[in-house]
Structures are given as C-alpha cells and as structure tokens.
Design brief:
single chain, 282 residues, alpha/beta, six-stranded mixed beta sheet
C-alpha cells in the first residue's frame, strides 16, 4: 500500500491525467476509439470567448480529427450536468468560424468524472452518455455527428461497467481514501498515475493547492447546505462571499452592491466564473 493524495482533487487529477499517453488511453477506453494526443493542456481557454460565459477546461487535447475534454467534479453542483453539457456544445461551436461552412472539423468527446455519489437515487450510475447523431424513426443512426459526452462515477461501479472503463474507475475510487494497493494495478500507465499522486513524490506547491481545494470543498458544502435553508438566491450570495474569502478576493462596497443587484441565474453564472478563474472577473 502507498499513501496518495486522492484523485478527487483537480490538482492531482490534472497532474496525473495530463500525461499524453495516460490521457489518450483513458479517453480512448471510455469512448471506444483509438486515440493518440501528443499534448494535453490544463485549464484550457479559447483565445476568444464563445458565448456569454468564458470557460476553462480541466484537461484538453486535440489532433486533426478529434478534440477531447476531461473534467473532474467532486463538490456537489446542482447545475453540473447542464454546465458540462454547455462546455461540450461550446467546444463544438468554437470550431465554426464562417457562415460559409458550418461543418465541425473535429469530433468532440467530453468526459466528466464525478467522485461523489449524488443524493438523488436516479442520478447514481457508473456510466451515462449522450450521442449527437441523428436517428430515424426506425432507430437508424445517420452517422452525421459523432460527438459524445460521457459522465462517469467511480463510486458506482457495477458488474455491467465495461471492463476497460471499470479498471480506470477502480483506480480512481481506490485513491479516494488516500491509499492505493499499487500491486493491484500492474499496468504501466496505471503505475504512472499512482506515481504522479504518491505522497512522497509531491511538491510543496501541489500539497498547498490540494489543501486549498479541500478548504474550497468544505466551503462549497457548507454554502450548499446553508443555501437549502436560506433559499436559492441567498445561498448563492453566501457561496460567492465564502469563495471570495477562501481565494483572498476583496469584496468592496462596489462589488457587494453589484452582487445585490443580480438575480439567481446571474449569481450562479458569476459563481462559476470565479470558481474557474479563481479571481473576480474583469
């Protein structure tokens, strides 16, 4: 057994899975397509914002034919499915730059990894996906669009989970208690993941950011519970104030006055921006 920092922390997940070979194998096994990305970017943002909300992707890789996005999500987010579906659509729309051609050059694969079981029983699953293709009344797919978004939860692995996907989810789940039996994962790529998150191999900076994420998680959980008591709008206001405190973002009178003018949707959008950018938006 070795001590690790859990893969629920974005800092560690991004470190381990930004390895191009690990990233390519993980996405390929989940999607069922052989892929080989030479470079994987962390916190990827497009040069020009697409849509009204600027976004960043945890992990992003692409080649001439494919664009792959992987997101890690631990903290409870009521809008998680809608948010990541939005990311999935934006990564397609961004490729269309002229009205003369609406073809999307690269097929987009988005994979979201949840590391906490939701409260709702109907949302507890090991693997769920959406395909973008058009299907006739007879059920025949036309083969026009191959984009896919896949949601995974290692806490809900079952005998029906595809074997290749199950191995990745078992590895992620095994890390969540802070220890891993490294002998159970002899595969070279899995050994590389374990080495990347093993406690003795971490830098002081990586430990610091993992601790910050732990504080973030506690703040978000408390704010979520508080929000259920106070109402959605007030809960979002509390969440933003708490998050700014954690990130050392000063909330002056101007910012507070701005917050008080926003409705629930606008507060939620602002919260998402601060969470991704870790700063007050320009």
């Amino acid at each position: 057994m070795v001590e690790v920092l859990p893969l629920r922390y974005g800092t560690l997940f991004k470190k381990a899975f930004s390895d191009p070979e690990v990233f390519s194998a993980f996405v390929g096994d989940v999607i069922g397509v052989e892929l080989e990305f030479s470079q994987v970017e962390q916190e990827k943002a497009f040069p020009a914002p697409v849509g009204k909300i600027d976004i960043r992707f945890d992990l992003f890789g692409e080649d001439r034919k494919h664009r792959a996005i992987v997101e890690i999500q631990h903290v409870r987010e009521s809008d998680a499915f809608a948010r990541f579906h939005y990311y999935h659509l934006i990564s397609q729309i961004e490729q269309v730059t002229t009205s003369r051609n609406y073809e999307v050059e690269r097929t987009v694969y988005t994979i979201v990894v949840f590391t906490r079981l939701p409260e709702e029983e109907n949302l507890r699953f090991d693997m769920a996906s959406q395909s973008s293709d058009i299907v006739t009344l007879e059920g025949r797919a036309l083969g026009l669009f191959k984009h896919r978004i896949v949601f995974l939860n290692p806490r809900a692995v079952s005998p029906r989970t595809p074997p290749k996907v199950r191995r990745w989810l078992e590895l992620i789940d095994d890390s969540l208690d802070g220890t891993i039996d490294e002998t159970a994962y002899p595969e070279p790529l899995f050994q590389r993941v374990i080495g990347a998150i093993e406690s003795q191999n971490l830098t002081p900076q990586e430990r610091y950011w993992a601790k910050e994420e732990a504080i973030w998680e506690d703040t978000k959980t408390e704010s979520y519970l508080e929000g259920k008591k106070e109402g959605h709008g007030e809960g979002l206001m509390t969440a933003i104030v708490d998050v700014c405190e954690v990130l050392d973002i000063a909330l002056d009178e101007t910012k507070m006055a701005h917050l008080e003018k926003l409705d629930a949707d606008a507060l939620n959008a602002l919260r998402m921006q601060i969470k991704k950018a870790k700063r007050w938006p320009e």
